[in-house]
Amino acid sequence: MNFSKSPHLIQKMFDTIAERYDFNNNLISLGMHKKIKKLAVKKLKLNKNSKILDLCTGTGDIALYLKKEFPSSDITAIDFSQEMISIAKNKSKNYDIKFLQADCISLPFDNDSFDVCTISFGLRNIENQNSALKEIYRVLKKDGIFMHLDFGKSSNFADKIFDFIVPPLVKIFYKNSIPYDYLLESKKTFKSPDELIKTFENYGFKFERRHDFLFGVISSQIMKK
Among 104, 100, 18, which Cα is nearest to 63's? Predict the structure, then answer.
């Protein structure tokens, strides 16, 4: 099955699922996605006063965990979906985080603006990934850190279990399975962590380290400008 990554369709899809996005993520990951995101943030080991940009923030999980882990940091979080941004703002209303609706392929920031840039479970949804990576490199300061977090490329038992349990759970609790059919398809066709590292290096980044979670089902790659 082929799914379009047209920006208009991706935006519409995430606007549609925004209201139940957190519930469904908790359901299909059995709550593990929160623990993994927190671990990924902890492993960044940033300076206390870092200026951080979180891309494809969704409902704001990573931005919120960044603020809790590095409370004196200055955090800006963006997403393509206004509905996602609205939920993120409400979830983080007691924290000083700037949320904006913006497009990763044309970031509204000056060159060399941020010490850190993160993107989690979002790059594979961007049709023009080349432009997005160029923009990330552009807005990062020299020696800035880029963290990418998403599914790894594994064929182990845990990964197969995930592929097996998601469709029936979504049909029971969400009724509309199309967005999550897309999730599974995009997960299968996305680059492996090793391939991603090589891609990031092609855009000028230098590999720092990689962290795998759940036996490789989830992986973060940390790069440096």
Answer: 100
